[in-house]
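[[Sequence with tokens]]
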Amino acid sequence: MLKRLVKFNLASLCLFPVFLSACNGGSSSANSNNLLISQSIPNLYLDQNWEVRVSSSGRVTESIEVTLQSPYGILTSPSTVVLTPESPIASFSISGNVVCVACKISASSNNYGTAYSNNFDVKSGQLPDYGGLADLEVATGSHKIFAASTNGHVYRAQIESSSGTSGPWIQMSTEIPDSSSILDMDYDRLTQNLYAITANGNAYLSILGVGSWKQLGGGSLPDNSISFGSQIDTAGNLFVAANNGNIYATSLNGGNWQIVGNAKLPDGGVVTTEYGIYIVPINNNAESIFVGSSLGNVYVSNINPASLVSGSWVHIANSSIPDEITSISVDSSTNPESGSIYAGTNRGLIYYSSGINGAWKQLGAALGGSIDFIVIDSSTSDIYALTQYGAATFSAYYSLASGFTSWTNFGNILPESMSDGCTVSDVVTSFPGTNLQFAGTNCGNVYFSTYGFTDWKAVGLSL
């Protein structure tokens, strides 16, 4: 995503930061009062709102209409305010929709000098390159969080469990070679390798997260396609769900992109999220890749992880689910209470099928929203699910085997949960359990909680 950096030349502005009564050649108004404007505007993040106040330095004896002005990309709401004897202080909000440096808000009125706020910046996030948040990955068991920036960098931060604090962001590898926005990122917990896929359809690998980026697949994704989500298997192969309906695979050792299942998804749909792909190892020579379609079907293909030769797509349960599938999970344990294959939908429902040839059955009541991801506890077959309602509300649930008769809520993320006031766009958590959660906002900030989705603290930097 291309960010526009706007820098404003303030040399022509008067030097008084709080108020100005004579901005033009020293002539002053007959009115000795001056406008005052807030001097406490912090550095903001994209789309973050901040309340600003304007008043007069003297007693207001009649209505004063004040015009508010701002540089390009900075929004004021409303654009005019009125000071009255009854209400001598007026409030308005500001927000930025482009990145800018050394911005100011001005307030002016007839017979009053122009007042200026303090300088402030509008940033796209707390990440060191000020990029927006593209993706989050958590390294289970290590208290490490990886954040991909829309400006082409990947960062890592360590959460100190004993003190409940965050270390600084540390850049991994170098900037992505094609200088485009990162869409998806994967972290191999076994090898510590990093994978990144960009808006230009290129996939890259960084060995141990410190080596230079190496392009995978022999080039960009075929047919000028882009990624809707990706996963890696235990052999380090990268699987990408593309917007053209194909699932592509490539090895970290080189080679061109291979089409999994030898064709597009049979129903003509696409996999719309990274959690719509689930890979189950069978042995050293075989694994199964399950995918959920936007048209309500689940398919599986067996693939050789060494050669990436795969079989044709097989339709699970030989029937459809009446909603878009947003997440897939498979209980590959021998637990007899297991439902085997689970599919979450964009209408908050979870279905299960007892094996490839089973029948789809609804699991409990609808949770509402969209099922973001499903995790199965391999030791108990208990089910954990994260749902998303609208733009910024998430809820976590679990259902216990056997029976799965009811859902229990054990955490919520509300629009006001994060201190930057921005929309929560991504959540990752250490299911099963509630020990560590991470949430990222559309302003590019990342937070963590060690108290079951409460008491959120900033990762990497303090706001």
